[in-house]
UniProtKB/TrEMBL annotation:
GO terms for molecular function: ATP binding; ATP hydrolysis activity. Residues 16-287 form the ArsA/GET3 Anion-transporting ATPase-like domain. Signal peptide: none annotated. The keyword rRNA-binding does not apply. InterPro entries: ArsA/GET3_ATPase-like, ATPase_ArsA/GET3, P-loop_NTPase. SUPFAM superfamilies: P-loop containing nucleoside triphosphate hydrolases. This is Arsenite efflux ATP-binding protein ArsA. Pfam families: ArsA_ATPase. Keywords: ATP-binding, Nucleotide-binding.
């Protein structure tokens, strides 16, 4: 029999310092992360939840008008946790700016922040959101103000981009193209004119023609200014990566009881195991458990008999509805069983679907209870 995820034991353990909720988009990661944070605070932990969700519904559910790039304490009438709850939403640009300010001298930081090329890549560079989520996690952990940090990871088409992002960005910023761009600064203005004028190589001339001489100059100036803080950038990425692999971190893979979502969850678990990340379990959201024991086949047969007799149309409709619900529950059980056969060591938590969308703190508390009771 598959073990169940002991959510309260996980949240109560003082050794648990970081909980990372990961999974494909649309499976309830954000709601799960927020509900875990609410429950942890209720049970005495000083908790902060970092969300990547651009929607306002989480802020509204927590009783806040909006979330920003710094944690805000949740203070809602009727909510008096034994611990403390704060929440924030990632702002990629501000996080990148903070990183520049932390790793560069005052003059270098001004040069980087004012550079047009930086203003572009700080919001659109491939992997920026994923890396900045991990950068913000590193910042929160370094501040040491919270017992527990709960992270809602970015929705990624490529399953675990947030794990790859630090390495991808380091490789890109240390790669051949960047070295080419930084070359003119080392050679002085003459070197830059050579690149823009196309006398260095056909490749450089083509780049200048395509992107424009000014953009190329901006990129070159950015790389030269960025070079002084590159070591700190890489060191922080490495430190955060080690935090993710530590015993104080727990990964919860979140999925819906659907084939595609569970396939993604399977990939997540395999990749996390490969990276030696501590997988604590699988959370299957929006399940449809059935307490009645009447099999779907017998319910349909009974409904057919009632229809033939022309009696009790309401009872017939209820029986058919029950049969449909049983079929859905059976399908979900088979899908989850397929996952557990492939990953027998992964504990599972099934969370029944809510009758309505979560839009307030009470709803998050209800989700938290369902997580704790999930089997």
């Amino acid at each position: 029999m598959t073990a169940s995820v002991e959510i309260d034991a996980l949240l109560d353990d003082p050794g648990t310092r970081v909980v990372v909720c990961c999974g494909s988009g649309g499976v309830g990661k954000t709601t799960t992360a927020a509900a875990l944070a609410v429950r942890a605070a209720e049970r005495g932990r000083k908790t902060v939840v970092l969300t990547i969700d651009p929607a306002r519904r989480l802020a509204q559910a927590l009783g806040l008008r909006e979330l920003g790039n710094v944690p805000r304490q949740v203070d809602v009438e009727g909510f008096e946790p034994a611990g403390e709850l704060s929440a924030m939403m990632l702002d990629m640009r501000r996080t990148f700016d903070d990183m520049v300010l932390a790793h560069a001298g005052e003059q270098r930081a001004k040069e980087v922040l004012a550079n047009p090329f930086y203003k572009t890549i700080s919001t659109s560079f491939s992997g920026t959101q994923e890396y900045m989520a991990m950068e913000k996690l590193g910042q929160l952990a370094a501040e040491g103000q919270w017992d527990l940090i709960i992270v809602d990871t970015p929705p990624s088409r490529s399953a675990l981009d947030f794990l790859d992002a630090p390495q991808r960005m380091s490789t890109a910023l240390d790669g051949r193209m960047i070295r080419l761009l930084s070359g003119p600064g080392r050679a002085g203005g003459w070197g830059l004119r050579k690149i823009v004028g196309g006398t260095v190589s056909l490749f450089a001339k083509a780049v200048s023609t395509i992107v424009g001489g000014q953009l190329l100059a901006d990129a070159s100036a950015f790389v030269q200014a960025f070079d002084s803080m590159f070591g700190g950038f890489k060191a922080r990425a490495a430190k955060t990566y080690e935090l993710l692999r530590s015993s104080g971190t727990a990964f919860l893979v979140v999925a819906a009881p659907e084939p595609d979502a569970l396939r993604e969850a399977s990939y997540f678990v395999e990749r996390l195991n490969k990276e030696s990340m501590p997988v604590r379990g699988l959370v299957v959201n929006r399940t449809h458990p059935v307490l009645a024991t009447l099999p779907a086949v017998r319910a349909l047969a009974a409904a057919d008999e009632l229809d033939k007799a022309g009696d009790a149309p309401l009872a017939s409709a209820v029986l058919r509805l029950h049969a449909d619900r049983m079929a859905v529950a059976d399908r979900e059980r088979r899908l989850v069983a397929r996952f557990t056969r492939a990953h027998p060591g992964v504990a599972v938590c099934k969370v029944p679907a809510m009758p309505t969308d979560v839009h307030d703190l009470s709803g998050l508390q209800d989700i938290g209870e369902r997580l704790a009771d999930g089997v």
